[in-house]
């Protein structure tokens, strides 16, 4: 046998072995648990199994046929509020009933300096974006939607702003000013309600860490109208590009309008997205996309409150006391002493995005009158897929999430693994219906319980602050006193 023939055989054997190895890796991890088991106040967290390559199962978008619509909860209807939009993402309702939507995609890549691995990551990200229907140039537009005749569909779709936009996401409005969060800065524009055009250049309020793996920058105005809160996601999964590039990321920023000062408000949040203020306590809440490549059952995305100074552990810790041993960066001292546990798990890899709490005047019926509505955009790295729906999470009278979620809109995912669309954001329309953006389909859906009457708002909890202790008390004496009173049959408070 000639040397060339031997080399050819060896090459074929090598290719077969490598191919078989790559095929094995590409099979990924199939979930052992249902999404429901990894959802709620006390999710089941399996032991982590680190993956060298991520599990990949992308639901390729095929669109909605004429007359098709998501499947609403019993007693609800759904219709197309607006369509023909180029990748609509964040929705924002203005006080006069107009609705704004950002048409946006990821910013153009400026190239990295991480060598071959950076190039490979960029190629993989581009492939995933393309398969999921998110590839392409960002439209960089804000469109006004107006339903003037009240028939549940916006007869007016008007581009009101393009100037200065660069992958815009979050919006807020107050006192004649429209605030917009680009991927790299927060801008302010003069804008009067009802106008069909934003004139003048935007004024930069603050810079934001640009682009990165998680490029969306949602924003919410405090109910007092004096502060903006801006969510900024991480570049990476677990800091594998080094923590220097994560400076200012994986956190929520607070910007004070009067002084122009800003500060980190909450940290350790891998990719915070939806923002809203609890009607019970006035506290900021957010949805967060957790880390990947620990299997199809880990780690669940979550809904949680964001007290000032809170840290949720990313990248070193998840869910209070679970250490991610893959992280190479040194962990800050004593971090494990103050990491907070998320309030409510939303399921593994569901890509939780838009969030709104129940609002006065809602038309969602008595069964969904006290809680939060969340868009789960859908997984790309779980077998079987998770998310691709809009859910309602009920809260108790003290403002705590409880129980299992309720499906509001489903039917986005097809049985063959393709998807008609991907729910992205949620917002209240002026008539009390819930609006849902569907980015890959270019549609804004509207769902309502038509037989319902406008619901009451949630009353803010009232409580007295704890009085300061004015004298030192020996706890042993208090215990002994209570014990003696119990022995005597007296009630102990």
Structure write-up:
This protein is an alpha+beta fold and 493 residues long. 12% of the residues lie in helices and 29% in strands. It contains 4 helices and 29 strands. The chain has helices at residues 3-26, 115-131, 335-338, 475-487; strands at 39-40, 71-72, 77-82, 88-93, 99-103, 141-146, 156-161, 171-174, 177-181, 185-190, 203-207, 219-221, 227-232, 251-256, 262-267, 272-277, 284-288, 300-305, 310-311, 317-318, 322-323, 344-348, 352-357, 371-376, 389-394, 406-410, 423-428, 434-438, 443-448. The strands form 7 sheets. A 5-stranded antiparallel β-sheet has the order 1-22-18-17-16, with no helix packed on it. A 5-stranded antiparallel β-sheet has the order 2-26-25-24-23, with no helix packed on it. It has a 5-stranded mixed β-sheet with strand order 12-13-14-15-19, with no helix packed on it. The longest helix has 24 residues, at 3-26. Residues 18-25 and 111-115 have low confidence and may be disordered.
